[in-house]
Amino acid sequence: MAAFIVLPFLVLLLASSSLSVNIDFTYNGFKSATNLSLDGYAGITSNGVLQLTNDTSKVTGHAFFSSPIQMLRNTRSMTPTTISFSTIFVFDIITARKVGGHGLAFAVAPTKTLRGGCCRYLGLLNSSNNGNSSNHVFAIEFDTIPKSSMLVDIHENEVGVDINSIVPNISITTSYYANNSKTVNFKLESGQPIQTWINYDGVAKILNVTVAPFSVGKPSRPLISLPIDLSPILKKYMYVGFSSSTGEISSSHYILGWSFRANGMARSLDLSHLPLPPQPMKDSPTSKFSRIKIGVISSIAMLLLVALAFFVSWHLRQRAKLAETLEDWELDYPHRFAYKDLYKATKGFKETELLGSGGFGLVYKGTLPCSGEEVAVKKISSNSRQGVREFVAEVVCLGRMRHRNLVQLQGWCKRNEELLLVYELMPNGSLDTFLFEGEKCGLLSWDQRFKILKGVALGLLYLHEEWEQVVVHRDIKSSNVLLDADMNGRLGDFGLARLYDRGKNPHTTLMVGTFGYIAPEVSRTGKPMASSDVFAYGILLLEVACGRRPIQHDAPMEQLLLKDWVRECKMRGQILEAVDPKLGESYVKEEVDLVLKLGLVCSQSIPEVRPTMRQVIQYLNRDDSLADDVALVFSEADFLDLASLNSYLSSIATVSSSSLSGGRCERVR
Ligand SMILES: *[C@@H]1O[C@H](CO)[C@@H](O)[C@H](O)[C@H]1NC(C)=O
Ligand SMILES: *[C@@H]1O[C@H](CO)[C@@H](O)[C@H](O)[C@H]1NC(C)=O
Ligand SMILES: *[C@@H]1O[C@H](CO)[C@@H](O)[C@H](O)[C@H]1NC(C)=O
Ligand SMILES: *[C@@H]1O[C@H](CO)[C@@H](O)[C@H](O)[C@H]1NC(C)=O
Ligand SMILES: *[C@@H]1O[C@H](CO)[C@@H](O)[C@H](O)[C@H]1NC(C)=O
Ligand SMILES: *[C@@H]1O[C@H](CO)[C@@H](O)[C@H](O)[C@H]1NC(C)=O
Ligand SMILES: *[C@@H]1O[C@H](CO)[C@@H](O)[C@H](O)[C@H]1NC(C)=O
């Protein structure tokens, strides 16, 4: 009879136990996790961390195991019993600012789609159902924010047990027992992973909750050991999972790993293989400050580095720029300047230091760094390498010339293809600026002009006759006549034309000189002679007396060529008509007359009939009755017709004229 009664009870018992599915799962990370039901802001990060909420404020997130779990046995009896269950999980609360919120909870709920509110409700409950026993919500909460005074919550860093309410039945400051008696507090928001063990003994009706920092391991004594009968709270089938929310202030709530087992102890997590949550850019004031500090320091360092690199490369470039490679022979010639010094003297050949451009290159003003002496530096580009040595030899040779009507050559410098000649600086510049840009420099009086012309003549005489060798200037013109402080005329660039010529090409003689000053035989034969300097000097005499250029392009046709015009005036017996009108009446008639006539005599077409420079000086000094000679020579030359001139020119073209081809300067040292 008893057996009859017991049997159906046993059958019932067996049937009910077969219904209780033994759920047992472990997530060591959530990469490709299945059977999870997520909502709200919950998601799984790329490295497999279950994220319940991100840093967005006032949001909720849920993650529940998708299958229900039978929590109650003997539901048909008067006293249903709760199963035992166990769970282990590791969570991590990452807070970008100093404080975050609000927390998370392990929840046992009748639905996996909880519609709890944000903020203090932790996504579990809401204002309308909070505290209602019909909720059937049981949760272990990890709360980081104090609840408002209305909903009393003492701890802001607490572990609590919630029963149908977000006001926990019990809450304890987050801590763990070390050595069974001593509690060690720790922060939920430390950013470090925290491990939690929740065990419920359905028979003894005891809930144990243990939390500890990930690194500590399981403490032997649980933090909370609460005798509680869950059977009135839970329903038969319940869902387990996590709920979380943020408020005005927020945190990212992460679950790194989770294991659960109904009717047994949950498996331990493989701690070493759990994924780690993404670390935020810490943006607390201190870290921001230090970031700024680091940024500032590193950018200053960077700047300094760049500046240093720039300086070094500039320095190296500068050194390379100023470097000279000396050939052995260069050391043999005296008066050599270092390129570096000339570079410094002319401020790096700056445009503002440019004095002018001569026939052979640009002329810069400079101040020598050591002596402070003012010089003019002429930069000549030679196109031929092989000529350079000879060039230097001759330049040095010319440097030995000393005459007060020559611009003194002080030295030279060779760098690559470039030759630099250093002259003494003539403070008053060149004659042509005075003659043709008188408004700029002031008018040259007749006395000054006469003195200048005499000086140039003396300088030219020195070149032609008084130095060791004959030197033909080849480029006599007003712009090559320089004026020193006392307004003495001094010849510059002497010998350069010939040197330049030679430097360029030793085999062909190029015609050098300046249009308007070139004697006809030079343009014919290309052979420069002292008499062709006399021709150019004659043109210079006319130029200075008339204050006009040898070829005046804007003049009326008959006045185009200065020489022709003066001659025409002479023929008409009105030679003084040609005088520079700027002089007005303030000139010495006899001297002007002499200069103009001498100019015509010197610029005669046939070289043989031109006077020598010595004679020219005698005329200028009116030593004796040479004025008649001048007239005589002049009249002879004056009536040469063009035909006889041409026949003469063709005759000398074939003659090798070696007599006055210019002095050679081989013996240098
Ligand atoms: C997930 O559910 C499927 C059936 O829906 C089951 O086969 C599987 O074992 C479950 N996974 C876990 C981890 O429980
Ligand atoms: C939080 O997640 C939402 C949706 O996934 C996204 O739109 C938002 O940008 C995220 N916010 C932060 C701060 O990560
Ligand atoms: C509160 O939660 C309950 C249960 O999830 C739901 O039915 C109700 O609509 C929610 N109320 C509000 C205001 O969200
Ligand atoms: C609790 O909830 C039930 C159903 O949701 C409702 O009928 C009851 O009035 C609520 N009780 C309180 C005290 O709010
Ligand atoms: C909550 O705790 C109070 C004592 O603080 C106790 O009287 C009450 O029964 C507890 N509630 C539950 C559901 O255990
Ligand atoms: C626990 O006790 C051991 C000795 O029994 C001691 O070495 C250890 O420091 C103690 N730990 C703490 C956290 O007090
Ligand atoms: C709960 O903790 C108490 C005290 O440490 C212990 O005696 C008991 O065995 C624990 N129960 C479970 C299920 O862990």
Describe it for me?
The protein is an alpha+beta fold. It is 29% helix and 22% strand. The longest helix has 38 residues, at 285-322. The protein is rod-shaped and about 160 Å long. The model is unreliable at 1-20, 149-155, 502-509, 634-646 and 651-669 (pLDDT under 50). The structure holds 2-acetamido-2-deoxy-beta-D-glucopyranose (7 copies). The site of one 2-acetamido-2-deoxy-beta-D-glucopyranose has 7 residues, from strand 16 and strand 17.
Could you give a short description of this structure?
The protein is of the alpha+beta class and 669 residues long.
Radius of gyration: 56 Å
Shape type: rod-shaped
Number of strands: 27
CATH-level-2 architecture of the largest domain? Sandwich
Q: Give the overall pLDDT as a whole number.
A: 81
CATH class membership of the largest domain: Mainly Beta
Any low-confidence stretches, pLDDT <50, length ≥5?
Answer: 1-20, 149-155, 502-509, 634-646, 651-669
- Work out the helicity level: 25-40%
**Distinct small molecules bound, one entry per kind:** 2-acetamido-2-deoxy-beta-D-glucopyranose
Q: Major β-sheet, in short? A: 8 strands, antiparallel
Kindly report how far apart the N and C termini lie. Answer: 150 Å
Q: Number of domains in the coordinates?
A: 3
Strand-residue proportion: 15-25%
Total helical elements: 15
Any idea of the CATH topology of the largest domain?
A: Jelly Rolls
Category from helices, strands and their pairing? alpha+beta
Protein name: non-specific serine/threonine protein kinase
GO molecular function: ATP binding; carbohydrate binding; protein serine/threonine kinase activity
Keywords: ATP-binding, Cell membrane, Kinase, Lectin, Membrane, Nucleotide-binding, Serine/threonine-protein kinase, Signal, Transferase, Transmembrane, Transmembrane helix
Signal peptide: 1-20
